[in-house]
Structure formats: structure tokens, C-alpha cells
Amino acid sequence: MHSVLIIGGSYFSGRVLVEELLAKGTYQVFVFNRGNVPLNMNGVIELVGDRKDSQQIQDVIPDRAWYAVVDFCAYDPGDITRLIRFIPGTIRHYILISTTSVYVSFQDSPIGEDFPKLSGPQPELGEFADYGFNKWLTECELVEECSVRNIPQTSLRPAIIYGPYNYAPRESLFFDAIYRNETIVIPEYDQSLYSFVYVVDLADIIIRCMQNPRVLNLPFNVCSEELISYNRIAHVLEDLSGSTVRFIRKDIETIYREQISMPFPPDRNLAYCGAALQQTLGFGYTPFIDGMRKTWAYHRYVQQRRKGVKA
Fold first, then answer.
1. CA 219 distance to own-chain centroid
2. For the chain, which has fewer Cβ within 10 Å, the N-terminal or C-terminal residue?
């Protein structure tokens, strides 16, 4: 049994990775986080501690030969350095879950791993101003620390992640509107394109990367080759619901003036190239329509359970 340590792991992508690892039957899964959302899964050893406390890292994490450390929650400078320096045992492969938000703003697309990175915060993003830049700093820390300590590392940069357990208001905004028979707003001039990755694909990719010599000491975008527009999303929603969904088109100025909640920026591309990782792993992504169909089924299941509880 290979010992795998997941930092974070209780929410969304990390939770799906835990489930996929357990299904393999060849991994002993440890999860280290603050314990706010216990997994309570058979076969998972939950370690409660704060990654920002070096003493807790030393005291709580067992001394193991870690086949892989998968880090979902390195958000600030120092997070990587602290963990690598104080984690007991040896690390055979450190996999950082970064983000495509590390790239500078752009209009040409899709872009690959060599595109320029942020050189500072993005004040225009408000409360998320530091997110992309800090993730880039954590990638830089990872390279530096692992180089000094001779630890193989990989940075994975997912684009927009969707699928079961998603707590971010993305696809759920559309699904909830359909349930409530509400009109869905889409941009009048639909020119922006977005890259997505189905969360189960992301978990599969992480597992395929573990100890794979072809991905060591490299960064990779993680996203399907499909580029999705709001129009494409509208067609998929109609197909999933089996009925005519009500849409209204509004220009971008009106969307911003009326402060209409949109899951993806209507005036900016978020399109990336994931070909390098796909070719390296020989991996085929789940088509968007299939991933959304599975996500729709999960969302309906959750809604039905909630109704049952209320009843």
C-alpha cells in the first residue's frame, strides 16, 4: 500500500481525489486539514491540524515514506516552505494543485504553460486580488524548496473545475435557475471562451501523475481541449433538462450595471491549452456534455434529498 498525504481534501476536488484513491484499493490515504468538514470515510486517516503551524505539522503528521503529497490548499507565501521543512518522513513526489489564474490577463487564446505569469496582485478583482499572484509565488517556492531537498515536484494548473461537490457558484447557478423556472441571462455578444475540466478527470490525472517520471519537475495546465461559450452552455442546459430553458440576452454593460451574477466573466477569455499534459499522459478528457450530464444528475439527487429532509 502506498501512503498518500493530501493537504486539504475535505471539499470538492480533494474529496473526489480521496474517493478515487480509495476505489483503487492500493493507497493508504491520509488527509491533513483543520477538521472543519470531516470526511468520515472508511479507509481514510484524518489528521487534524493547521498547516500554518509548524509544530502541528510535526506533531500530527506521521513519519512515513510518502509516495506522494498532494497539496490543494497552498494559498500564501510560506505555505509550501513550512510544510516541506517540517513534515515528518520522506517525500517521493510533491504535487501542487495550482491554477491557471497565475497567468497575466490576456485576450489571445488558448495559452500554454510558458505564457507570462503575474508580477503582482490584481486590484480589479477586489477580494480575490491576491489569489493568482500568491498561487504563482507558491509554485516558485515549490521549485526552490524541492530543488534544494532533491524532491521531485509537479505543479498542476486546472482551469475552471466543475462536477459533484462543487461549492463554488458556477454550474449550480444555472441548475438552480432551471429548478425555479427562472430566466437565465447570457451575454448578447457571446465572444468569450472558457476552458473546463471535469473534477473526476482532475482526480484521475493527479493519480496518473504520481511517480510518473514524465511529469516530474514540470508545470502543466489541466483542461479539456473543448472551448466553451455561454451559447454552448445554453445548448447543454436545454439538452440536460429535456425542456426549453428560458434565456434572455443582455449586453455586457447592462450585465455589469444591473450587477447580474455571472459564473464566468462575460467580457474576458479564460481559455488555456492543456495539450502538453494530455500528450504526456495519453489522457482523454470527459466531453463537456457528458461531464455536465453527470453533474446535473448529482445536483438533482442533492435537491431531492433536501426536499425529503424538509418533508
1. 15
2. C
The lowest-confidence range among 46-50, 159-163, 245-249 is 245-249
262's grid cell? 455571472
pLDDT, mean of residues 64-87:
97
Cβ(161)–Cβ(291) below 8 Å: no
* 257-287 confidence digits (pLDDT tens): 999 989 999 999 999 999 999 999 999 999 9
Judge contact between 270 and 264, C-beta under 8 A: yes
Crossing angle of the two packed helices 288-310 and 199-209, in degrees rounded to 10? 120
Q: What is the topology classification, in CATH, of domain 93-168+194-229+268-287?
A: Rossmann fold (3.40.50)
Which ranges of 69-198 does DSSP label H, i.e. alpha helix? Answer: 79-86, 131-149, 171-179
Residue with grid cell 478583482, as numbered in its chain: 125
Q: Which residues contact 7 (CB under 8 A, 6 or more apart)?
A: 32, 33, 51, 69, 70, 71, 72, 73, 74, 83
Q: For 8-17, what is each residue's pLDDT tens digit?
A: 988 899 999 9
Give pLDDT, residue 93.
98
Q: Is there a contact between 153 and 94 (Cβ–Cβ < 8 Å)? A: yes
Which cell is 235 given?
445548448
Residue that has been written with the C-alpha cell 484524518 in this structure: 46
CA quadruple 198, 204, 207, 213: dihedral sign: negative
CA distances from 141 to 5, 136, 210 (A): 19, 9, 20
The answer to whether the predicted template modeling score (pTM) of the entire model surpasses 0.70 is yes
